[in-house]
Amino acid sequence: MDLSIVIPLLNEEESLPELSEWIMRVCNEQQYSYEVIFIDDGSTDSSWKVIENLRSNNNNIKGIRFQRNYGKSAALNEGFKASSGDIVITMDADLQDSPDEIPELRQMILEEGYDLVSGWKKKRYDNKLTKNLPSKLFNAATRKVSKISLHDFNCGLKAYRSKVVKSIEVYGEMHRYIPLLAKWAGFKKIGEKVVEHRARKYGVTKFGWERFINGFLDLASIMFVGKFSKRPMHFFGLWGSVCFMVGFINIFFLIIAKIFDSSVALTNRPGFFLALTFTIIGMQLFLAGFISELIARNATGRNFYLIEAKAGL
């Protein structure tokens, strides 16, 4: 199959018929063999009924329905697992992403050798204060930390080699950092393409201010996971050793001072409490490292979701 188009959605019943018709027109014009996988993330409207009706008229349309809302990352992860195309395209269901971008995104993967191509919504139609400005700050911070030269990490419109989506795991709210996940998985050629951003036609945005706070917390988490997920003891053990050594050195100097001057008190000096504190912290970090090693080697079920129904899969 040439193309898998993965589309997570939440309460988008109005936009789905127009979006699916648009995708079908583009794919037929380009003579692609394709599938469209809609992932209904616990919608409370008639989105799933619309998907079933669309499938009855077009066998290329498939669907997954979550029993409850798990979030965009969960939806993408299930869509990636279900995809079978050589190239995987992701886009949002709200018609703000244009399916007309698909041929060029696919071409960049096939002909220019990219592993992942991320869309860049250079001209946006969102609120400048509540969305555009925080988005620029978020992208600047992510670009500096990740060393990946992208202007819009969170753009829903992306293209991937199939091998990329089969090599990464998206959970929590890590969909914002898929390029970084791909980099940690060993895929180095990551590019971007300026894409059209359309004004929202139906419904309302599903994300608020909290997404930016969560985004920075997730960035710290993913940087740690990317470097130390397979060897957490290297992180906790290092800082545990540093703290333990600081505590030990303090204790050593207190003992030396007591030997040379018996009038020196040990327990009522700031150095004693610093030594005690650093020693305890060092031991706790060591224990955290050992426990993390056990969890990392035995963790299962991190990406288990209750799926109520499937269509065509």
Task: Provide an overview of this structure.
The chain is α/β, with parallel strands linked by helices and 313 residues long. It has two domains: 3-229, Alpha-Beta Complex (Spore Coat Polysaccharide Biosynthesis Protein SpsA, Chain A); 232-298. It is built from ten helices and eight strands. Strand 2, helix 2 (47-57) and strand 3 form a beta-alpha-beta unit.
Provide the descriptors you would attach to this structure in a database record.
313 residues; alpha/beta; Spore Coat Polysaccharide Biosynthesis Protein SpsA, Chain A; 2 domains; eight-stranded mixed β-sheet; 14% strand
CATH class of the largest domain: Alpha Beta
Rg of Cα set: 25 Å
Strands of the largest sheet, in order across it? 7-5-6-4-1-2-3-8
Strand content: 5-15%
Give the termini separation. 15 Å
Helix run count? 10
Q: How many strands in all?
A: 8
Q: Which residues form runs of ≥5 with pLDDT under 50?
A: none
